[in-house]
Amino acid sequence: MILGVGTDICDARRIAAALEKFDHRFRARIFTEAEIALAGSRPNESLFYAKRFAAKEAVYKALSAAPVRGLGWHDAEILNSAGGAPVIAVSGGCKRALEALTPRGYNASVNLSLSDEPPYAVAFVVISAGPSDGLQE
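The structure assignment produced for this chain is given below.
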């Protein structure tokens, strides 16, 4: 079953301007240490951050039906799997919101798709849940 859907688009030029103006303060406020480390290895840092920014916003939108407020920027961490696919780890407020949305006896999963057409980055999130015993309805 689908528990939530979220999408967001971000202009990498906006992120580049924030990086130029606020540099470390912007990075530290919005992104986790692991995200910052991963960005340093990318040729287009602002586009990398724009995709992560859009992903965080999309996660918050997908969780918006939960009765939890105060989702923090670091509560959704977007990294990459060994194969390079984007993956989301939730903690804090995002984790509490995901738990609140997930029916008893179900396991939730958060799926993310990222794409870009510079200077734009887009993220799409689907939160779904299936029965804990592995049986489908």
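Interim note for the steering committee: Strands lie at 2-11, 76-80, 86-90, 106-117, 120-131. The longest helix spans residues 12-30.
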